[in-house]
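Two entries, shown back to back:
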Amino acid sequence: MAAQQSQGIQTLLEAEKEAAKVVQQARQYRVQRLKDARSEATKEIEAYKKTKEAEFKNFEASHAGVTQDAQAAVDKDTAGRLQTITDSYQKHKDVVVKKLLDRVVLVKPELHRNLKKVGQ
């Protein structure tokens, strides 16, 4: 009977070792599948990124002329407005300087409107 129990225990130990091997193989398989999935996802992401970059470059190339034309129009408008402002400055600077000097130099002493005369 002892031999039969010993043989049963031995069989259980061997079955446990075999089960541990199966579990270990399943873990390794799962880890490998995860690595494969990550590498596949990385490849798909890179391919998608290349496609979108190519689309963007095509879009940029097709609209580059429009941007340059708009920039040229803005530059021309800015130059025109700047010239107008410069002309106005040159035309009116003497008058403005004279008005400022008259205000500073020609002072009329007056009592402040909030000052009340003493005794009244």
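entry 2 starts here
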Amino acid sequence: MTDTTLKTAKFGIGAIVRHRLYPFRGIVFDVDPVFDNTEEWWLAIPEEVRPRKDQPFYHLLAENAETEYVAYVSEQNLLPDHSGEALRHTGIQEIFERDASGTYRMRDRATN
């Protein structure tokens, strides 16, 4: 019997997170309740660190010391980032606004 119960995502839109194993951090801009990428992408991850598919996966505007990019990361590999360091990813301004308390919120977007 398969457990089809969906787990509640640990991180919400606008959460600042860091990877548990690799030196990058970012801001969550979308969440998939379970894995929703290609099998090829999943199999490209080394088996010893390959995440389970039955957990939330997060779309991040990510950055490391060298570059900015979009990352797709399993919940098991993310930790909250409490460093207080500013994020520099150029895509943040497009999607988020920061309030007086420092919290990131999605910008209101006009529908077409």
